Amino acid sequence: MGEIYPCCLTIAGSDSGGNAGVQADLRTFHAFKIHGCTAFAALTAQNPFGVRAVLPVPREFLLEQLDAIFASYQVAALKTGMLGDVEAIETVAEKISMRRNVAKVVDPVMVASSGSKLIKDEAIISLKRNLFPMATVITPNIPEAEILSGIKLETLSDVKDAAKRLYDEFGCAVLIKGGHRLSLNNDAQDTLFDGKEFSFYSMPWIENPISTHGTGCTLSAAIAASLALGNSLRVAVKKAKEYVYQAIAKSYLVGEDCGVLY
Asked: Which candidate in 217, 218, 239, 259 is catalytic?
């Protein structure tokens, strides 16, 4: 018997364009030299300009995927992305709750950065009730953090208050992705609260990047991969932030108006 290497699991939706979702997660796991397992919660027809159709995966098949993975693979960390509806959220929560030694990165995928809501209110309630309390860290963007905390985020103080409120409610670490909306000194800043102290992660803002599609998926996958390699949460977020910065900086065209992360 040789050495057993840890692997990562992504439970999310597919992106037919390969920019986001499961495809972005696998690309990220590979960059961190981690084997990636997949459980598809939904199929999408999309490109960087919009989602044309979504096909939910039946509960029974989602269960079969998760059972097959956990029966054979040594999953050290997992991430959840687009789950879409209450049934998918409850199914995932049921299975991963049994995996107490697996680091769990939950990307809510509730609201687009533009502010458009992506899932129904009952699914948001299910996320809060079923998934967040078992997470190692949740990674909401600004609009998502506003909905979850009930706080309008306009200053760094607001972000800190929201992170504390979410930690108190769910008992998990909170990484609020700031992006350009809360940039400081022209840096894009994310804020992590682990229940004890705050950590801030800033990278220079990249003007007019070729692509930013899939950055949220990529960040959460990178955190999961780094945790699987044995890093602390603070270090994992730092490495993930650096990885995403390089992925944006080196993004490239694969169509006349279509770019992808590196």
From this structure: 217
Q: What is the mean pLDDT of residues 67-73?
A: 97
* Catalytic-residue membership of 28: no
Task: Write the single-letter amino acid at 179.
Answer: G
The token pair that represents 121 in the structure block: 């209110």
- The whole-model pTM stands at 0.95
Q: Is 80 a catalytic residue?
A: no
All domains in the chain, ordered by first residue: 7-260 (3.40.1190.20)
Active-site residue (options: 17, 36, 84, 214) = 214
- For the stretch 78-111, pLDDT in tens is 999 999 899 999 999 999 999 999 999 999 998 7
Sequence-distant (≥ 6) Cβ neighbours of residue 51 within 8 angstroms: 44, 45
Is 196 annotated in the active site? no
**Beta strand 187-193 pairing with 198-204:** antiparallel
Active-site residue (options: 177, 178, 191, 259): 177
Per annotation, catalytic residue among 13, 21, 84, 216: 216
Active site residue 217: yes
Strand partners, 105: 79, 137
Whether 215 is catalytic is: yes
| CB atoms near residue 136 (< 10 Å) | 20
What distance in Å separates the CA atoms of residue 256 and residue 229, rounded to the nearest whole number? 38
3-state SS, one letter per residue, for 23-84: HHHHHHHHHCCCEEEEEEEEEEEEECCEEEEEEECCHHHHHHHHHHHHHHCCEEEEEECCCC
Residues 6+ apart with CB under 8 A from 171: 133, 195
Does 155 participate in catalysis according to the annotation? no
Catalytic residue among 212, 239, 241, 259: 212
| pLDDT tens by residue, 33-44 | 999 999 999 999
